[in-house]
Amino acid sequence: MTPRVKEILSWYGADSPGTLTNLARLLNHGRLGGTGKLVILPVDQGFEHGPARSFAPNPPAYDPRYHFELAIQAGCNAYAAPLGFLEAGGRDFIGDLPLILKTNDADSLDTTEPNQAITGSVADAIRLGCSAVGFTIYPGSANQYEMFGQVRAIAKEAKAKGLAVVIWSYPRGAALTKAGETSIDVIAYAAQIAAQLGAHIIKVKLPSAHIEQEEAKKVYEQQKIPIKTQAERVAHVVQSAFAGRRIVIFSGGAANFDDKALFEEFQAIHDGGGFGSIVGRNSFQRPHAEAIKMLHTAMDIHAGKAKAP
Amino acid sequence: MTPRVKEILSWYGADSPGTLTNLARLLNHGRLGGTGKLVILPVDQGFEHGPARSFAPNPPAYDPRYHFELAIQAGCNAYAAPLGFLEAGGRDFIGDLPLILKTNDADSLDTTEPNQAITGSVADAIRLGCSAVGFTIYPGSANQYEMFGQVRAIAKEAKAKGLAVVIWSYPRGAALTKAGETSIDVIAYAAQIAAQLGAHIIKVKLPSAHIEQEEAKKVYEQQKIPIKTQAERVAHVVQSAFAGRRIVIFSGGAANFDDKALFEEFQAIHDGGGFGSIVGRNSFQRPHAEAIKMLHTAMDIHAGKAKAP
Amino acid sequence: MTPRVKEILSWYGADSPGTLTNLARLLNHGRLGGTGKLVILPVDQGFEHGPARSFAPNPPAYDPRYHFELAIQAGCNAYAAPLGFLEAGGRDFIGDLPLILKTNDADSLDTTEPNQAITGSVADAIRLGCSAVGFTIYPGSANQYEMFGQVRAIAKEAKAKGLAVVIWSYPRGAALTKAGETSIDVIAYAAQIAAQLGAHIIKVKLPSAHIEQEEAKKVYEQQKIPIKTQAERVAHVVQSAFAGRRIVIFSGGAANFDDKALFEEFQAIHDGGGFGSIVGRNSFQRPHAEAIKMLHTAMDIHAGKAKAP
Amino acid sequence: MTPRVKEILSWYGADSPGTLTNLARLLNHGRLGGTGKLVILPVDQGFEHGPARSFAPNPPAYDPRYHFELAIQAGCNAYAAPLGFLEAGGRDFIGDLPLILKTNDADSLDTTEPNQAITGSVADAIRLGCSAVGFTIYPGSANQYEMFGQVRAIAKEAKAKGLAVVIWSYPRGAALTKAGETSIDVIAYAAQIAAQLGAHIIKVKLPSAHIEQEEAKKVYEQQKIPIKTQAERVAHVVQSAFAGRRIVIFSGGAANFDDKALFEEFQAIHDGGGFGSIVGRNSFQRPHAEAIKMLHTAMDIHAGKAKAP
Amino acid sequence: MTPRVKEILSWYGADSPGTLTNLARLLNHGRLGGTGKLVILPVDQGFEHGPARSFAPNPPAYDPRYHFELAIQAGCNAYAAPLGFLEAGGRDFIGDLPLILKTNDADSLDTTEPNQAITGSVADAIRLGCSAVGFTIYPGSANQYEMFGQVRAIAKEAKAKGLAVVIWSYPRGAALTKAGETSIDVIAYAAQIAAQLGAHIIKVKLPSAHIEQEEAKKVYEQQKIPIKTQAERVAHVVQSAFAGRRIVIFSGGAANFDDKALFEEFQAIHDGGGFGSIVGRNSFQRPHAEAIKMLHTAMDIHAGKAKAP
């Protein structure tokens, strides 16, 4: 156990040794093990975007085993996926890496106010040997309070049963403009909400410099909160999650296959004090070897061993 | 236990021996037993379309015992029906073939956004000696997430109690055009969703070459996914269900009494690597002897012992 | 136990001896005991239409004991009523006749899409010494699927606790015209749905020769299903309930105080192979002695001992 | 135990000795104890109308203890109030009079279709030493069926735990005109519904001679139901509650501080065979001594010891 | 135990020794311990308004530990916060001050009818060593009855498990104008509702002299209820909460950084017989030392040791 991991665990004073053990598993696994940084492979795109859009660019990825192998070989801290993918691939990789069961999912056939279906449970996560459950909330949706109530119930049960809790906090819905979904005030707010709901790990998108809420704008200007660079914005989001005492990881602001831009994003996350990345489409949609190389670079940037070119 | 059945069971690494035993029962029963192919007789049309539309063309079919006998005599792998039909006929055929209890049903008196009523439970399935529960979802309906949550709960209980899970995945509702309900992108997506929800066996309709979703269209064209022939489309759907590691079976794209067209559909399913068919109206709405003959031909085509004329 | 009752019980092969015992109680009680025919007295009109409309024409009927006495003295197979009526009168008639607790009810103050309130439970039925629970569904209502789910849950519990299940299947609501509520296709469909939901006894209205659904019309014409006479229509409805292997009883198509028309309806039910009648307003709204006489005639017609004049 | 109370208890043949004991407590307590008549003090106006409108006319009534004392000193049969009032005052008056916990309440800040919030439970009633639970239903509201289902569940639990059940049955909502809320047909209907839902004691408003429902009007005219005087209307309502075999009590038709009119209402209740009154605002909004005097007169009229002047 | 605290506890005669012990902890802790007055630090603004609007004016406040320290060092009676803040900071301050877990929360991304998400439970409160649970209701919202039902359920469980219950009663929603949200009649009503729902401690906003409801206006004028000064209005609200037999505390009517106005508000609360204040933004958004000084002044005013300048 490195001092940094010990320090991070010390922030979660309300959790049982069982939950902390699983949180430690995520922090201690893989190429970034012990650094306090995380790169997690998430593959829910089959559910969220459909199979062809997700896997046709790299057809071996249709196979659920592909993603376990990719995450293991790249040395990711964990692999996160919906029930079906974990059920279909898990037995071949028992004990090989920490798993996160996504317990809700949405599809792109949905035309109603943003929401998700409950697709997994704490009991499923335990049955599948997972270290954590994942849950997506949509702050700003007319369904947000129902989703908050759902994640609260799942988080309560997860903690009682020794699992860690990861919240994907994605603002969207009736209350927000498109630009508002990634605006700095709203992303920082989304991180705060996830933290207040009891998340151990918070996943948000990289924020833009746009400010959505009129009331917030006044404060950002009055207090001169620095949000010009991506690193500054990352720092503000991390601060917004309990002064950095919650693990906040990021995904890119847009689908993005230009590695230069991608690495710059990782660099900004690193420079702003972010705890790492969730890298999905940008890894499994390219050939295996290229994905491994990219992920290693990403990890090196997060670990401070490399700089974005 | 044939090597092929052993191979298929190996894909379900998260399931208990109890559930695998029931899945094996489905795969090992009847004329296709051991081949890894399935022809299942489903009779929910009394509920879905009404009694006269379903049974008047062949009046003995009003009797619940008729369908047990048809499935047994034709050598189907299983018989699937709603609660009432299984309650009314089951005692006369105990142990004669695997049963699947449909746990939700819709009727054609419905004018609201597509949905189904919960009409059965895992406890009912166990009480009736079934090997599996069936559940229909409507991806694209405004009710889809509620349905996903329902099937997840039923599937969780079924697996905990040693049953297999069959999902009928029928896209329809506010998000889709009529053509979109059987478009190749949406059918492949429907198969993926059912797989992610934890289905052991997935039932979809045969897809057309139409592409419904703009975002998907780009990928199909860019990646040159072959979807011109029915067999190619079947292969794509099978691939979309975890690279062929989930059992996917098909029904015809339309009510169809022309046996030539019907056999061509079976041939396409076989050539595309599909796992078999669900044949309802096309079997029980014709005289008993003709139905047996047709089903045997269907089985032979699926087993690769015959070619569609 | 007569051979006919034994035969009828043999159709319910999924039920426990406990449930069959209660079903036998209904079939073996009263003047029609052992014939396989049933005349049941139902009194939910106080709830459904209000007290004055129901009981003012024959004021002794305001008293809950009146209906027990009427049913006992007339030799009905059973008495069906909501919670309050059974609670208020039952102790004076313990063991005197089988009781059916209606577990949902509607009132005529309702202006919303057809639905019913849950007003009783299986535990209430057991506490009150009932042999069966009753439940009304409205196929065609926007609330139909919720009602199907409710009756399924109640039926499941009733069967587990040894009670029989009676479903009142009354089509109405957004999907239907007024004429459609009693059209032959829709009434036959309503009987099928109740059977599929697991009813032991199904109550429908006498159908008209009208056909509501376009798709059904084609089949009725193509298959030349005979529906011209009331007896033919009764026969079709009985066939639609599992080829006559479920008990189907009827109420008159309209409020009707002309005894000639009433007896013709009973005759048609008898001639079409129906299992009997539910006679409410036409019995308790006339003087006691007249009601007994009318009910005896009804029973004689059902038993084949008399012909409608 | 007086013969009259024994007679009344005999109507509740489905209830346990435990529940009958609590019903007897209500009937045997206070100045009317043993007469079979009841005057109950209800104080839910703080919740329903707000504190100033309720208590400013007689400021000592802001104190929850005031109402216990008033009910005790006046010799009421029972005191009915929401959770807070019973929690706040009960310990000072343990065993001094029977209590009724109102388990739902509404406020006048509501602008939606008439409904109530669940504010108490059977467990609360037991914890607070109550003899009965109270529940308000709104027949005619679009929410009526949900309310019926709620009271049914609470009544079931109350009876199982030895408590009596009081239903306030107040017609209102989308289905009714303002005049219809107190029309004789609708009030009689409301009493019938409460009785069918299993109430031991039914509280309705005094009806007017208006008839709301077209279908009912025909019957009232045809059967010449006498409804011209208030006493006749009371008699009709009592008859509508199981021919007088359920306890029906009344409140005035309107807020009314003219004692002459008030006493005439009590007289009409007495003459029509009503079982008593619920007197809220007319008692606690006047000075203590006057309230006691008025309540004693009310009791004397109900007991037949006095006549309205 | 001071006589005043003993007196206050005597008002809660329905509560268990366990709950009274926790209520006593709140009353006996800190600088106001034993006086019967309370100053509580609540920090739910991160959730309600977002992190930058809440904490940027005083950046150390981003850290969850900051608020524990502030409350302890200022000698507040208790600290109230959502789940995340209590989980993140509690272990460092075990036993240092009484805690209140807010069990529901709203955010400012909401555009629907006022409501809150359930974000905590009684089990969480116990796990975190809290003395009480907090819950916000919105009287006047179309969601009010659902919220009342939720708090009732949480309060019931809290009392059964020995915790105290604090209700934040904030009128808002469809039934109210903006001015009505703080009008004297509505604030007094909000206090009454919270008391009837079983709150031990009630938190309302300081009322204005505006009267919202027509029916209430008549009574205020007729009864000449004094509401001209803030102290008179406080007295009326306290009286409206069971004649002062429930603890009612206040927050300022508006965000307010002018200490003079703030102290005048505290003085009015004191003069009107209010039990104290909840001071959030006005304390943690200013530098630590200033906050302590301000809070000490506030406490002195509440204790009657100082006068507002």
Short description:
The first copy, chain A, has 309 residues and is an alpha/beta fold. Chain A has 14 helices and 10 strands. Chain A has helices spanning 3-10, 17-28, 45-49, 51-55, 64-74, 83-89, 122-127, 144-160, 184-196, 214-222, 230-240, 259-271, 281-284, 288-303; strands at 38-42, 78-81, 99-102, 104-105, 117-118, 132-137, 164-169, 201-205, 247-251, 276-278.
Folded structure, characterized:
The structure is a homopentamer of 309-residue chains. By secondary structure, chain A is an alpha/beta fold. The first copy, chain A, is built from 14 helices and 10 strands. Chain A has helices at residues 3-10, 17-28, 45-49, 51-55, 64-74, 83-89, 122-127, 144-160, 184-196, 214-222, 230-240, 259-271, 281-284, 288-303; strands at residues 38-42, 78-81, 99-102, 104-105, 117-118, 132-137, 164-169, 201-205, 247-251, 276-278. Chain A has an 8-stranded parallel β-sheet with strand order 9-8-7-6-3-2-1-10. A two-stranded antiparallel ribbon of chain A has the order 4-5. In chain A, helix 9 (184-196) links the parallel strand 7 (164-169) and strand 8 (201-205). In chain A, helix 11 (230-240) packs across helix 12. The longest helix of chain A has 17 residues, at 144-160. Chain A is globular and about 55 Å long. Chains in contact: A-B, A-E, B-C, C-D, D-E. The A-B interface holds A 46-47, 49-53, 56-57, 59-60, 62-64, 82-92, 105-112, 115-121, 123-124, 127-128 and B 11-15, 139-140, 142, 144-146, 148-149, 152, 156, 171, 174-176, 185-186, 188-189, 191-193, 195-199, 213, 215-216, 219-220, 223, 225, 236, 239-240, 242-243, 245-246.
